[in-house]
């Protein structure tokens, strides 16, 4: 079942969409209701994003979210606040889609989890074995769409809209 979001052009589905890599996205809120964002290390431009990553076969969305949080930002000091109602899909730019994952996917389909961070800034470590980020910071939820690469912007608008009740 496909649904269009009023605020965003990303595709909302009740199940992961064929041809898209199943992923989990993590919206991590601190005590001041700011969101963790990391600056990607693998691009020359200033590309910031929330943690995200693939869901392994047989893995639950929650287990994938906790694993990705530990792998990308070195912490599990968080409690689950909410899970998105829908999967959100986006297409990668064609040149990137050909290079990523051997060209098997045209983009990603993501289930989003919102967590409350229960640690301190010292608990976050981006110097991990396979780093995703070269810098990190806390940003207001309203800033997120302007920080992300354009092809993910509609997903971020939709995620912010769905989880708005957590900081309103």
Automatic annotation (TrEMBL):
It is an enzyme of class 3 (hydrolase). GO terms for biological process: nucleoside phosphate metabolic process; ribose phosphate metabolic process. Keywords: Hydrolase. Residues 19-161 form the Nudix hydrolase domain. Its EC number is 3.6.1.-. Its cofactor is a divalent metal cation. One of its GO terms (molecular function) is bis(5'-adenosyl)-pentaphosphatase activity. Gene3D superfamilies: Nucleoside Triphosphate Pyrophosphohydrolase. A motif (Nudix box) lies at residues 53-74. Pfam families: NUDIX. Accelerates the degradation of transcripts by removing pyrophosphate from the 5'-end of triphosphorylated RNA, leading to a more labile monophosphorylated state that can stimulate subsequent ribonuclease cleavage. Belongs to the Nudix hydrolase family. RppH subfamily. This is RNA pyrophosphohydrolase. It comes from Marinimicrococcus flavescens.
């Amino acid at each position: 079942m496909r649904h269009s979001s009023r605020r965003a052009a990303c595709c909302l589905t009740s199940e992961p969409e064929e041809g898209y890599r199943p992923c989990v996205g993590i919206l991590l809120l601190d005590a001041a209701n700011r969101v963790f964002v990391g600056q990607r290390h693998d691009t020359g431009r200033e590309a910031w994003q929330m943690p995200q990553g693939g869901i392994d076969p047989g893995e639950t969305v929650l287990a994938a979210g906790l694993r990705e949080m530990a792998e990308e930002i070195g912490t599990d000091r968080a409690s689950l606040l909410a899970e998105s109602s829908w999967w959100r899909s986006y297409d990668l730019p064609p040149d990137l889609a050909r290079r990523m994952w051997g060209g098997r996917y045209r983009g990603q389909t993501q289930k989003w989890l919102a967590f409350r961070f229960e640690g301190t800034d010292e608990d976050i470590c981006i110097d991990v074995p396979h780093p995703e980020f070269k810098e990190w910071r806390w940003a207001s939820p309203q800033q997120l769409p302007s920080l992300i690469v354009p092809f993910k912007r509609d997903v971020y608008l939709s995620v912010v809209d769905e989880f708005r009740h957590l900081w309103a």
